[in-house]
Automatic annotation (TrEMBL):
This is DUF4246 domain-containing protein. Coiled coil: none annotated. Residues 1-123 form the DUF4246 domain. InterPro entries: DUF4246, DUF4246_C. Pfam families: DUF4246.
Amino acid sequence: MLNENIVSSSIYYYDQENITESQLDFRVAIKEPQYDQDDIKWLYTAYGLVDGDPLAQNIGHIKTLKNRCITFPNIYQHKVQKFELQDNSKPGYRKILCFFLVDPSKRIISTATVPPQQKSWFDLELRKSENRISKLPYEISDLISDEREWPMSLDRAKYHREKLMEERKTIISKETKELFERPFSLCEH
């Protein structure tokens, strides 16, 4: 999403058990090439394009192995290929950690200037400080805490994360159709 100013992404595959091999596929959007009308053979020879093909170039893949960190620029679209349990009678998992590099020329809010926002930490600090709330019984201060909108609770944070993920899915789907799956057309108009 443009407002995030992310220029690069990294995915660290730090643990996995009982899953089959998988990979990340990458592609990049391309612009429609210049060509002479009806020069179909040249378009296929030079670009591998035929009428109706998506204007995207597959640029390769990499295996997603344990203890591997994969980093790529955000102009690439990536897709995790399917994987499954090696042994269906046992549980399996893959654990990843994602990092996003924000354009260093853009100013962003940082944890250097924003205090921790976990509600439990905030409540603990309120109880330790010399104020009226700290003198109340925990049951009462907890009721007051529940009525405060800031900092948000873990449940509220999870709710907002789900909304964000849904928003991202919609935008990525639209972006995929407009950038990576728009068809090449030999039509004159």
